[in-house]
Specification:
The chain is built from 18 helices and nine strands. It is an alpha/beta fold. The chain has four domains: about 180 residues, P-loop containing nucleotide triphosphate hydrolases (Rossmann fold, 3-Layer(aba) Sandwich); about 80 residues, Helicase, Ruva Protein, domain 3 (Orthogonal Bundle), CATH 1.10.8; about 50 residues; about 90 residues, Arc Repressor Mutant, subunit A. Keywords: ATP-binding, DNA-binding, Nucleotide-binding, Transcription, Transcription regulation.
């Protein structure tokens, strides 16, 4: 079966190089009866890939049993997997068949395998090595012909080092490892996937078909998608249900994208590939998302309060809470290294267009003036450019400083003669506006 037929059969959408590599590996590892470990973030579609592996194997006419190890209480996971004899524990009023017996001849998909307790890991290793097990509370040795596919969103090698996962089981499970890429590494797939979800939910809810505007498409491609395909599907469903027109616009999408309304970030910062994200970067993203969620909750509470006749100030956050979050963001943010000084001959100083007929730039600087600024700023303004307000001029200077120093706040603050903390607060105020 070629890749296109595989995608059509199992409903796997996308044509990015990262996805094509995964599907090519699926076609390779599915026929041999080998244990497969799927690694990837939450929401990337690991269960869909497991279904494809089972569906292309010789076991495809038998059952695929799906078990979420993280959803089973620790005290019950062994009886769920291997079964239990009557009276094996309180409440065991009859013999219970486990998932291994149910999957005999087929495939057992153990999702979130990193959540499995150590005692159950010992029994699982025995089954993988010999195919033999016994029910909880029983002495009879049973046999199950089962292929195991495991999945995790954790770094199992790190879990082994921390003593939370058995090393021998890790090596047994990782005979073949397939890494499912996050959606931020498949940016070419984002808009086609979103449009496919729109079509699906339009049929499901008997709603009009929605087109995606170019601005909305750019926003979708630029967003980091921390929830991956699951988050994309949820946003598409919300867009269909809440749409008031025949198109999905950027403004209607922003409230549904975590972190976009917070300002600096997830939509504007290019997310590095998994494995290259530093701890500081992860903390910074989490703080940005927290601030965005706080703002959304406050807005919702104010709306409810307004309808109930309650004062708006009732829902304001304590000042020290906002200050603490701002301080944490300032500490977590690590600006990129400063680039080499720009060539003055190639630099153009740009002001915002304050009116429709205002010129957008002053041209290249001349003489020994500061790079990017005209020598005679007063003369340039005297040519007829409408005077900006102090707030507009300050905003333009901040944007120019950040552009000139490639986002380095420390150098920008020094050039503007203000503290870095003051600059940070002014940036936050601009974002709020």
């Amino acid at each position: 079966m070629d890749r296109q037929a595989l995608q059509e059969r199992f409903g796997i959408l996308g044509d990015s190089p990262a996805l094509r590599r995964v599907l090519d590996r699926v076609r390779q590892v599915a026929p041999p009866d080998i244990t497969v470990l799927l690694e990837g973030e939450s929401g990337v579609g690991k269960e869909l890939v497991a279904t494809a592996v089972h569906g292309l194997s010789a076991r495809r006419h038998k059952r695929l049993v799906v078990v979420n190890c993280g959803a089973i209480p620790e005290g019950l996971i062994e009886s769920e997997l291997f079964g239990a004899e009557k009276g094996a524990y309180t409440g065991a009023v009859e013999r219970r068949t486990g998932y291994f017996e149910e999957a005999d001849g087929g495939t057992l998909f153990l999702d979130e395998i990193g959540e499995m307790p150590l005692q159950a890991q010992v029994r699982l290793l025995r089954v993988l090595e010999s195919g033999q097990f016994s029910r909880v509370g029983g002495t009879a040795t049973l046999h199950a012909d089962v292929r195991v596919i495991a999945a995790t969103n954790k770094d199992l090698a790190a879990e082994v080092g921390a003593g939370r996962f058995r090393e021998d089981l890790y090596y047994r499970l990782s005979a073949v490892v397939l890494r499912i890429p996050p959606l931020r590494e498949r940016r070419d797939d984002v808009v086609p996937l979103f449009e496919a979800f729109l079509a699906r939910f339009s049929r499901q809810y008997d709603a009009p078909h929605l087109a995606v505007t170019p601005e909305a498409a750019a926003l979708l491609r630029g967003y980091a998608w921390p929830g991956n395909v699951r988050e994309l599907r949820n946003v598409a469903e919300q867009a269909v249900v809440l749409s008031e027109s025949g198109a999905v616009a950027a403004d209607s999408l922003r409230p549904h994208l975590r972190g976009v309304s917070a300002g600096l970030a997830l939509a504007r910062r290019e997310a590095p590939p998994a494995g290259d994200v530093g701890e500081r970067e992860l903390v910074y993203r989490a703080l940005l998302e927290l601030r965005a969620e706080m703002q959304e909750v406050r807005a919702a509470l104010r709306s409810l309060g307004a309808r109930g006749g309650l004062p708006d100030g009732l829902f304001a956050a304590p000042p020290d809470l906002d200050d603490a979050l701002d301080d944490a963001l300032e500490v977590a943010y690590e600006p990129p290294p400063a680039p080499p000084p720009p060539d003055a001959a190639d630099t153009v100083f740009e002001f915002e267009d304050y009116t429709d007929d205002a010129p957008a730039d002053y041209g290249a600087p001349e003489g020994d003036g500061a790079a990017g600024l005209p020598d005679d700023l007063e003369g340039a303004l005297a040519t007829g450019l409408p005077l900006p307000t102090m707030e507009e001029a300050e905003a333009a200077l901040i944007r120019e400083g950040l552009r000139r120093f490639d986002g380095n706040r420390r150098q920008t603050a020094e050039a503007l003669g203000i503290s870095e903390r003051t600059l940070y607060r002014k940036i936050k105020d601009l974002e709020a506006e």
